[in-house]
Amino acid sequence: MTEPEIVELVNKVFENAFEIEKEKIKPEAHIFMDLGLDSLDIVDLVVELQKGFKIEITDNEKLREIRTLQDIYDFVSTTRAEMGK
Amino acid sequence: MALCCAVMVLAENNWHMKKLKLIYLNTTFYLLFFLASALIIPTLSVILVTARIFISERLFYRYFRRAIRFYGQVVVRLPYPLVKVRYEDMSNVDKSVPHIYVCNHNSMSDPFLMSVFPYEMVQVVNVWPFSIPIIGYYARLGKYLDVNNMPFEKFLADAKTLLDEGVSIAFFPEGTRIDGAEMGSFHSGAFRLFLETKAPIVPVCIYGNKKIPPKGSMWLHPGTIIVRSLPPVTWEEYQDSTAYVVKSNVRKRIGEELATMSEGQ
Questions:
Q1: Is A58 buried (19+), middle (13-18) or exposed (0-12) by CB count in 10 A?
Q2: ipTM surpasses cut 0.90
Q3: Does B210 fall in a domain?
Q4: Nearest chain B CA: its distance from A50 CA (Å)
Q5: Active-site pick, A38, A41, A71, A74
Q6: Is CATH 1.10.1200.10 correct for A3-82?
């Protein structure tokens, strides 16, 4: 899976599971301040990312550092690489 | 020149009148508030503690929350006629089943305004209401939920138990009072509970009390407060959605209704 494909799939998760308007979905968008997610919404985000990318997300430390959409793209990319995908 | 002087004198008189009104409102309100609290709280406490010997725990809590409602009704009426409160129920809900009430948060008066609702109800409140002497103690005793000081799993379990017992739960999902006209962002706890328990959400719009009292102050300002309950949001509409989607939609409905209420004033 290429980087643009990862970006597209993550963006789809935000569009479909969170019904966020396309215009708001930008790499620099802060998921809490700009998109209105809260710490509990991260649970749903993890479920959707695991489903979409068929990955296992267990690193809570890295998850806590996520602030922007770009952080999520990087996080998914790293997790996939660690799983040998 | 004479006209200019007359306008200035009138404006000054008006300013003095406003100030006098403010002093009168706050003096009478706080005097009556302390008197009513000193009379009602100990009297009802003695009655309830005595009754507890003869009644079940469940019945005790029902009466205890009814006592909180009575106290709320008294407090809300104290500043009348300088502060008027109007309840508008557009929800048409079945009062025999518990609901999740989701309200916007303007002022310290919000928990008092919500306590008047004619249902057995607890509120999910921030840290500060629990720190109010006596009232905070009774809120804890009435099993009001302190969402900030408990793990979410424990919160969810306690809230589910309350709903199972037929007790409605009121949330202020903004968490804290926001300065200015805009509503703050919502926390998703209420909406997660909704998806888990299927208890309908009743959106509630509280309008007109941003200055009764304003954030960071105890001064009440004259005005009219409207508390409007909207038609409920049901689980069937959102069963396949995330809590975020429910949260966004309920926030939007409250925001739109508040805008309508603002235009109507």
A1: exposed
A2: no
A3: yes
A4: 15
A5: A38
A6: yes
